[in-house]
Design goal:
heterodimer, A: 476 residues, B: flat
């Protein structure tokens, strides 16, 4: 009887998680979806505690006290983080959260290995369970160390440049095969105490390969890495779910795993790169470093403009399309930008926002920043939705983006960014570029748009420049 | 439950995930990351099992379990709350 109720409860929590993701199909239903998610989690936790209460004869109150303390500490810490974090630092936060899921999976696996009585029928770990558990353990450990590196890169603690050395891929391959061999060796006879050393070796090697895999990946490829680690954290949960024979964990793990995989795919497609080439790494450092490498002197005449020029051009326009990029996030220009657009709208100018799929450091990064600045989401459009509109726009206002506008992606088969879908800003009557410098983007490619007659460059900090434009607009 | 039943659940869930996530609007991809993060912390279940089984004694297994519970809690609370915060910002034109 009890097992049936418990089974149903876990199933219910899995279904609620599906509804939580389903809600995200539109901003209107998303908040409700989030509530379903929380409900699902509460049910899963309550069910597990109830199950522990029913099944353990020697249950001690102190175990529950310890759990409450652990949840309280974690919960308070998590809540404070979630409240205080600035929206520009979201990618780091997500990476940090992924690392915690990975580490939790590792600890659960160790806990199950050291106390099989609590986890397995008759206290015997079968070969099958051991394989599932070690897979969960290995993927969890890789998620942890990979996310730590991703966090360090996003936070600027480690250089965003790809770290490549000779024989890297060979070493990774050897370690990877080593982990598989160790899983085999532990799983042949999991209850044999002499295999414990292999178990710990899996932990160590998996942590190590997680570092190695993410280190060579450049800062600009971080949207893919973040999505990929998201996917890994799901598969780790799945592995543990199989071990515990827990449907809620398996369902959720599969959902998260496929979600992360889809996001990785979308991000790769947005850059026209294969997931393999991203994972092999070595591409795309931070824009500053790439700029030094590409600094070969000017390639033509650049028309520089002032905030007054920009204000004049835009207030006489009928339609302005804003193209935000990572540079907007770095200089936190989104609020000034929205203010600028409000003034333009009050002058009768039609304003829209165009978002490239890989703009920023995580999927959907720009959308969140614009939403934070109170930009209504029905003014914000994805690449496919808005790209044809540049031809009828008077001004394309590019703030902190570069490569995603580079027409070379369409015309030059030699270019590293060839084939990448781009926003057709060159079709607008005038293109305004807000940039820190004339540096090339992360791909190290010059953007020949900078040298066209229709283009005007506004060099300097994006936020400062935008504020100057706001002032100029207010004066006119 | 036998392996085949669990595996069936797994395969079907991958398909459900596939179709549901393709339905997520690209504008909400960041909240999607936060929410998936929070729900994958359902791994807390494993930590709870290890922690409950301690029988009042703190051994390696239950300590691992408690740490897992703590880490997952950070994620559960943090993930759902940051998703909530993001979603609250998405507003329509007035």
């Amino acid at each position: 009887m009890n097992t049936t109720i418990i089974g149903f409860a876990y199933l219910l929590s899995g279904v609620l998680f599906i509804l939580a993701l389903k809600g995200l199909s539109s901003p209107v239903s998303a908040r409700k979806g989030n509530t379903y998610g929380m409900l699902g989690m509460a049910i899963a936790v309550a069910t597990t505690l109830y199950k522990g209460y029913v099944e353990n004869e020697d249950l001690q109150l102190s175990s529950y006290t310890n759990i409450i303390i652990a949840v309280a500490i974690g919960g308070i810490f998590g809540s404070i983080l979630a409240r205080k974090i600035s929206m520009t630092a979201l990618p780091q936060l997500v990476a940090a959260f992924h690392s915690l899921v990975g580490l939790a999976a590792v600890f659960v696996a160790i806990g199950a290995y050291k106390n099989p009585g609590a986890f397995f029928d008759g206290g015997i770990i079968s070969t099958g369970s051991m394989i599932e558990m070690s897979l969960g353990l290995a993927i969890g450990a890789i998620t942890f160390s990979g996310s730590v590196i991703a966090f360090a890169k996003l936070q600027g603690l480690v250089s965003g440049n790809p770290l490549v050395f000779k024989g890297q891929h060979l070493i990774n391959l050897v370690i990877f095969l080593g982990i598989l061999a160790l899983i085999y060796m532990t799983a042949v006879d999991p209850m044999d105490p002499t295999t414990e050393q292999y178990f710990w070796a899996i932990v160590g090697l998996s942590f190590f390969i997680g570092f190695l895999v993410v280190l060579p990946i450049g800062g600009a490829d971080m949207p893919v890495v973040v999505s990929m680690l998201n996917s890994y954290s799901g598969w780790a949960a799945c592995g543990i779910g199989f071990t515990l024979q827990n449907t809620a964990l398996i369902i959720t793990g599969a959902l998260v795993g496929s979600s992360g995989a889809i996001l990785s795919y979308i991000m790769c497609k947005g850059m026209n790169r294969s997931i393999v080439s991203v994972l092999l790494g070595g591409f795309g450092g931070d824009s500053d470093a790439a700029a030094v490498a590409a600094a070969g002197g000017p390639k033509g005449n650049v028309k520089q403009g002032s905030a007054d020029d920009a204000s004049f051009i835009m207030s006489n326009a009928q339609k302005v399309i804003i193209v935000p990029g990572y540079g907007m996030a770095v200089s936190q220009a989104q609020h000034a930008l929205r203010e600028m657009c409000d003034i333009l709208k009050s002058k009768g100018v039609e304003v829209r926002y165009a978002i490239h799929p890989v703009a920023g450091r995580m999927p959907g990064h720009m959308n969140v920043l614009l939403a934070e600045a109170n930009v209504p989401y029905d003014e914000v459009f994805e690449l496919e939705e808005i790209n044809h509109e540049f031809a009828t726009a008077d001004v394309a206002f590019v703030i902190g983006a570069n490569d995603v506008t580079n027409p070379l992606a369409k015309t030059d088969p030699q270019s590293p960014i060839y084939g990448m879908p781009i926003l057709d800003v060159e079709k607008a009557a005038t293109t305004l570029f807000l940039k820190r410098s004339m540096a090339s983007g992360y791909a190290g490619v010059d953007n020949d748009l900078f040298f066209r007659d229709k283009t005007m460059m506004l060099l300097g900090d994006a936020k400062k420049t935008t504020e100057e434009i706001v002032q100029a607009l207010n004066m006119s | 439950m036998d392996f085949l039943s669990l595996f069936s659940i797994f395969v079907l869930s991958v398909f459900v995930g596939f179709y549901v996530v393709w339905g997520v609007t690209p504008a909400l991809h960041s909240p999607l990351l936060a929410v998936t993060n929070a729900i994958s912390s359902v791994i807390i279940v494993g930590g709870l099992i290890a922690a409950v089984a301690s029988e009042g004694l703190i051994d390696l297994s239950s300590t691992m379990g408690l740490i897992a519970v703590l880490l997952a809690s950070v994620n559960i609370f943090g993930g759902f709350m940051v998703a909530q915060r993001m979603l609250a910002m998405f507003k329509k034109k007035k």
